[in-house]
Write a structure and sequence with these properties.
This protein is 45% helix and 33% strand. The chain is α+β, with helices and mostly antiparallel strands.
């Protein structure tokens, strides 16, 4: 037979695991998003939003990743320093990509409101877990 203390300890561990999974879910869904840009809007968008982190996929199925402020659009070319992405790795890239060769651009945008709600969710779950743990300990005594 399992003692009450062991049962309460197992229950608390399960609650901690649930809290961590919930926080992870909120972080995954709330803090950032990817936006796809159509080929006709590439030059305009890149000129206006050069401060965003981007990933470019070209007609030869290569993917390039550029951090913020590490690329610029000149005439019909994207110039920059970034990474050429492979399946599980990457190699440094410095060069240019013709706008006509670009199939897709993904822009990683941060969501400040989502981040605030994530922080509030983390704090709320932490406080609730602490309260439940303290009540469980008091009732076992």
């Amino acid at each position: 037979m399992i003692s009450i203390e062991k049962f309460l300890n197992m229950t608390l561990i399960k609650k901690y695991i649930c809290a961590i999974l919930t926080v992870s879910f909120f972080h995954y869904t709330g803090c950032y998003s990817h936006q796809q840009i159509q080929r006709s809007d590439v030059k305009t968008y890149l000129d206006e939003n050069a401060k965003e982190e981007i990933t470019i996929r070209t007609t030869d199925f290569k993917e390039y990743h550029f951090d913020r402020l590490m690329y610029a659009v000149r005439n019909d070319t994207v110039l920059g320093t970034g990474e050429l992405l492979f399946f599980n790795s990457s190699v440094p890239f410095q060069g240019k990509i013709a706008l006509d060769d670009i199939v897709e651009i993904r822009v990683k945008e941060t969501d400040a409101l989502g981040s605030i709600f994530t922080a509030i969710g983390i704090l709320t779950i932490g406080v609730l877990t602490a309260v439940i743990a303290s009540v469980a300990v008091e009732t076992s005594n």
